[in-house]
## 1
Amino acid sequence: MTREIDIQYSIRTFLEGLGVACYSLSQGRHTRQSAGLPDLYLLHPKLGGIWLEIKAPNGRRSGAQVVFHDRCERSAVKHLFVSSLEPIRQLCINAGLISDVSRERSTDAGLGKGASPLR
């Protein structure tokens, strides 16, 4: 079973390797922090600012987390719920931070033996 903390670690490691500033707000115990505040806040010139709530694959969203998400949507603020690295990887591809290697491989594979792509 994949734990939320393991998912968060893989996401942070991946993003920080791309130069994305990751601010952790996750709390392991009850605090005076506002209920519903997401686990990470991301900043990067190509991504802008993004609130990131990380859930285990079978994790549930609390009422406060849903309210925060809705408020972000109504205010045009980026907020994502994720339970794996894949949506973050796709976000980085879409923003031009990384290339889609799987797409490049399938394109190159269709060229035939000995052919090379024109670049």
## 2
Amino acid sequence: MAGNDPDGPALGTGTTRGSADYSVDGLLNAFGLIGERLLEERAARRVRVFGHVAKVRPWKRRFAYLTLSGAGHTVEARCPFEMAPREGEAIVFEGEVRLTPSRLQPGLDVQIIGMPAGTWTPGVETAETLALPVRERRPLRWVLDRAGPEGLLILGTETAVRDTLSALAAGGSSSVPASEIIGMSDAETIGRQVARHVGSRAPAGIALVRGGDDAGLSAFDSPDLVRALLSLETPFYTGLGHAHRVTLADKAADAAFMTPSQLGAAVADLCAAMEERNSLRERVAQLETRLGGVPRKPALRTLIGLGLLILLAALALLTR
């Protein structure tokens, strides 16, 4: 099922991994929460919603809660912290619909649990050119937790790689991922060079970055390129264009960022959180050592033990 609103984007009936396309108002109408439809006439549970980001509310560096607005209504969404879009952007949000009893009024609250899948331009039709396979998507944090920043390989044009690394440095990160300048003029060249670097370096994840909105960006709409990227079985992330166009590669990526700079800023935020966790672990180890060295001083042992509990609680919050 697909929704269509006179005030929303021109939406087709094509789906992404079983997703159905809706505008914000179309989604609520499909669930029977506005208009004349009955609640039993359910919309698809996996959806892509086209809306404007009215509000972003981060929560403990774990999640970001979003309010997406449509022609006359809003819907709530939740995504990983590092994937949060900017307020005012027109985004495509993909995820699972969750219905819960409302605490404030009779009826149900609607929340979409997922992540931004790109951006859209009001009035411009979006079309699927490839049925994307169902697979587990790995957030950027997954790569950094397992291999550190050095496990991420950034591939792109010279300007885009520079913008990505500049944003990372501006975020205060002392760790620098590996990077390579590659040609991005056509899909075949991109696929060949990405495969070569992944084969020689075996990174934990790759980031494809390219700025601009010229005709060359259409290479990332190539089904052949997307199939080649998926066949590598390596998590990949995109930072393409100038925050107003979504490509097929963005939709297939483990996570898509609006620009190369936004991808670099996300890596910087995650690196800062990792460094904070490592610092806390060191302090915990030091307190454990001190605690073991004062067996005959109960008051001091109690004080150190209390500090140890506080640090462990803080560490648990940072690693959730």
